[in-house]
Amino acid sequence: MNTLPTAGAGYLDDLYARFLKDPLSVDPSLWAMFAPYADRSDGVRSEAAGDGRLAVACERLMTAWRLYGHLASSLDPLDLNQAPGHPDLSPSAHGLDDGDLDTPVAGTTPRDLEARLRAAWGGRFTAEVMHVEDRAARDWLIEAVEGGLYADPAVDERRGRLDALLAADAMETFMNKRLPTNKRFGLEGLESLIVLLEAIVGDAARAGMDKAVIAPMHRGRLTLITRLVGKPLTAAFSELLGTPQVPEGTEASSDVPYHLGFTGERSFTDADGTERRIRLTMPSNPSHVEIVSAVTLGKTRATLDLRRRDGEADPTARVLPLLIHTDGAFSGQGVIAEMLQLAGLPAYGVGGSVHVLVNNQLAFTVKPEHGRSSRHPSDVAKAIGAPVIHVSSEDVDACARAGRIALEYRRKFGKDILVDIVGFRRRGHNELEEPMFTEPVRYTRIAETPGIPQRYAEACAAAGVVSETDAQAMVESHWSTLDDAFDRAKSYKPNAADRLQGRWSSLSTVGEGAVPVTGVGAARLRRLAEASVAVPEGFALNAKIARQWGERLDTLDDGINFGTAEALAFASLLEDGKAVRLTGQDSRRGTFSQRHAVVFDQKTGAEHTPLAELATSPHHLTFADSPLTEEACMAFEYGISITDPDALVCWEAQFGDFANGAQAVIDQFLVAGDDKWLRQSGLVLMLPHGLEGGGPEHSSARPERFLQMAARNNISVVACGSPANLFHALRRQLLAPWRRPLVLLTSKSGLRHAEAQSKLSEMGAGTRFRPVIDDAGVECDARKVVLTSGKTYFDLAAARRERGIDDIALVRIEELYPVSETAIAEILKKHPEAEVVWAQEEPENMGAWRHLDPHLARILGGLRESGARATYVGRDAAPSPAVGWGVWHKAEQAAVIEAALA
Prior knowledge:
The protein is of the alpha/beta class. The chain folds into 4 domains: 9-113, no CATH class; 155-247 and 261-491, Rossmann fold, CATH 3.40.50; 522-763, 3-Layer(aba) Sandwich (Rossmann fold); 773-901, 3-Layer(aba) Sandwich (Rossmann fold). It contains 28 helices and 22 strands. Helix 20 runs parallel beside helix 21 (663-670) and helix 26 (821-829) packs across helix 27 (849-863). The longest helix is centred in the first third of the chain and has 26 residues, at 43-68. The N and C termini lie far apart (80 Å).
C-alpha cells in the first residue's frame, strides 16, 4: 500500500504520472490529491487532468462491475427471474456522459470498456470475488473472469460434453419410461451439471489427483452415480426394481436407491495421450442431505491423515473434496454454516473444498423469496470469504468453464470456492408430484422450453462439432446400453455385501468374535503414566496441574481415577501404533479441568502435549478444541471413523445433553449407518452425565434416546462407575474384531470422587471390560439386590456404609447395551430370595429403566416363578431431565437413596 507523499510537487507529479499509466498502482485514497491538476493552466497538465478524470471514472466503473455485475447477469434459463441490476453499473453514475463514452482512455474507450465488462460479468456466467481478502487470489479470479480463462473449448471437448448430456438425457428419459412410478429426483432441467462435474473431475485427474470424495445430493443421483462415479447400470437398475443388494441371510435394513453411495474409478486422457485415473467415492446419505457434506469432509481429512502417516508430503494436492448441494438446503440448513466454519481450522482443514450448488430456484414447493432472505442461496459461503461463480445451466460450455476455474482456484490457493449452477426441475421435486398445483406459470414455461441436451446438440451440429447423424448415433448407443443393462438387471443378484473392504478387510461383522483382552502389563502402565505427565526441562507448568499430575503418579498403587485411566488408554493405543483423535468443546483441557491433554507454559504460553511423544508420527495424535457447534463437528468425526478403522475417534460434548444439537447425525448416521449402508463406525461419544444439581440442561446425556435406538448390536452404551472399565472400553474400540459406536456416559462428580478408583491390577495383563460388576462385599443371600449404574452407585454405597447396612448388594450394570443377561443372571442366582430393584437418578421415563425392564423380566422369569419382576426406584416421570432449584434436587436425590435402601 502506498503512503502519503511528503516530498515536494515533483514527487506528486511523478505519482500522478504513474496513476495515469496504471491507476491500480496508486492507493485509491490518494486519488483526491490529483484534483488540483484540472485547474492548472499548463496545457499538458490540463490534458492529463482530463485523462485522469476519465481514468478514475473508468476504474470506478470497472470496480462497480466486479462488485455488482452478478446483479445484472442472465442466470435464469427460463427468463422468469429478471436480474435487478445496480445503479453503479451505469457509466453516468461515475460522471461519464455521452460525450465521454468514445474518448480514448488507456487504449480503449469507456463505451468499449463497458461492453467488455458486461460480457465478462453480466451474461450467463458471472462471479462474486471482491469480498476475497487475499489480494493475489482476488486478482487471479478477476483475470480468470475478464481474461476468458477456459472460455474457448476445443472441438473434442465440446464433443465429450455433448456425449455427457446425451447420456444423462437418455438415462433420465429411460427411467421415466421404464420405471414411471419410481421416485428418483431426476436431473432434467440441470443436465449441464454432469458436464460441470466431469470438467472438475477430469481436470483433477489430469492435474495428478488420484482421489475425489464427493458429497452427494438427491437431485440426479442415479445419473451422477452411474455416469460420473461409474456404478454399473445393471446394479443401479436392480436397486430401482427393488432387488435387495445384499446376499440372502445378510442382516441389514438397506436404504432407498437415491440414498446409496458407491466407489468407482474413472480415467481421463492428457493432451499428450497419457491416461490419468482417479478414484471417486460418493458416501451414502439420508434425507438430512446436507449433513453428508460434513461427513465427506471428515472422510477427506481421514484420507489425508492416512497418507501423511505413510509419508506423503502434501496429500491435499492429490485428494479433492467435492461437495454438491441444493439451493434450499444450502441456504436453509444450519449445518452448512457450521461446516463452512471448519474450513480454516487446523484440526478440520482439507486444503479447500470445491462446492457445487445445484440451484433449482425452488425448494420442494417453497419459492426463494419465501425460503431465504439473501439474494443468492450461495451467500452464506461469503462468510468465510469463499468466492462464488454463478452460471446458467443454459450455457453448457460456461458450466464447464465454471467448474474448471473452481478446481484451479482450489489447487492454487487451497481454499473453498463455490459454483452456483442455476437451472430448474423439469418434473417437479420428484416424478410423482404435480408441480402445477403451486407453480403454474413456471411449469407452463418449462413445458415450452426444449431440453438443454437437444439444444446443445443443435448448436454443436451448427458449429460443425458433430453431424446430426453422429449425434443420433450417440443417442442410440446410450439407449442400447440402457436397454441391455435393464434386461440384465431383472436377474441380477450381488455376490457379496459391499462391506469390510480395503483397510477394513481384516474385521468382521459386529458381534462376531470374542471380546478381546484389553489389559496391559503393570510395568508398562507405570511407564505410560509417567510419559503422560512429562514436560520438557524448564517448562513452567501450572501449579495446580503439577499437583494433579503428581497425585496421578503417587496414587498408581492406591487407586486410579478416571482421568488417569483415560490417559493410559490413549497412551497405550498410541504406543501400539494406533491413531487417537479427540475433539470437542474445551476437550483439550476438559470441561471439568480433568484432562489437560495439552498444557501451556505459564510464562511463554507455549503448548506441550505429553502424549505426542508416544505417537508414531505427528499425524497419529489430535487433541483439538472444536467450534461451538455439534452437528457438523460430530458428522465430521463420523466421517473419519468410517474411513480409518485404526484410529480411536472421540467426540466430546461439553455436557452430555449438548449432543441434542447433533441428533440427526446420531439418528441417521451413527446408530443406523451399518444397518442401512453396511458401514461400520467406531466413533466414541463422550457425554458427561449425572444429576448433580446443575439443572435441566447440565444433567442428562439422554441415555434413554440411545437405548431406544439400540438393536442388532448397533451401538454400545456404557455408564462407567469404574475407571478401569473406562480404560478397557476405550481400548476395546480398536482391539475388538469389529467397529461399533460407543456412547460413553462419562462421569462429572465422579472424576474426583474418593470411591471412583480402580486398582492397577484391574487394568493389568489378561483383564478386559466387565459389563456387570458384582458386589464383592455381599457374596450371597442378600435381602435386596440393587442394580444401578454410573454415579448412583457411589451415592448408594456411601449411604449404605453410613447406615451400617450389610444385607443389600449393589450391582453395577456398566454396559447398558448390549445387556449381558448371562452375567446378571449369574449374580442373581446367588441371591434367590432377594428383592430385585433397579435404581436410577433420572426420571422414570428417562434413564435406562424402560429399556432394562423387559431384560430383567426375562432373567427373573428364568430363575424364579413366572411373572417375577424387578422394582423401579427413581424419580417420577417428568418432561424435564432435572429440577432447577438445588433444594428440590437434594430432596429428590435423598428420596431415591431412601427408597433403594429401605
